[in-house]
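[step 3/7] fold_predict: job queued, chain A
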Amino acid sequence: MYSNETFNRWRRHPWHGLHTYRDKTQEDVVQVYIEMTPDDVVKYELDKASGFLMVDRPQRTTSSPPALYGFIPRTYCAEEVAKRCPHAEIADGDPLDICVYSERHITRADIVLNARVVGGIQMIDGGEADDKIVAVLAGDNIWGGVKDLSDLPEIKVERLQHYFSTYKLVPGQENDIKVDFVYGREEALKVIAASKVDYNNHFGHLHTEARAKE
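[step 4/7] structure written:
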């Protein structure tokens, strides 16, 4: 039986109210808030102020993400994340994006799941670092044993690169997106650690203030 101490009376903000890790002893397993599924040809994104999932824009093309797509709570891409990208001076100023492969077809967004980090794609969008971490659903019957990006079929990463290089494409306009560099588990964990530092530097005061009011 649950008591008042074992559940939240109100829904937590997906970015600030959830934790990066469900179990702090597993640094490669992160919590993920899912914004989009492979069925979506509308770009959904978290409204940062309210914490609700909102329509960002209908996709101009029929492109849809080849994996579940969302972000890691309590991360932020700013100065420290930009330092890990030699060709960008700044980062995009958003939570750290993550793509999660699942053998079973998950058809809804606005959910939270646990994912094992296996690598990432160093995306540069308009000169800004906009890394995409790549992960597999924790405990997945097909992909659950994958430990590093090199364990995935190459086509999985190629499809992600293609999606992110074309999802903002407008006919007749230049597309200033680069997704040429991919990295494995160890670098991905360093990018996550950098995004945690950026989050604490920019938003750590929110949690200090909340604790002070308790």
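[step 5/7] annotate
The mean pLDDT is 91.
The helical segments are 79-83, 154-166, 185-213.
exit 0
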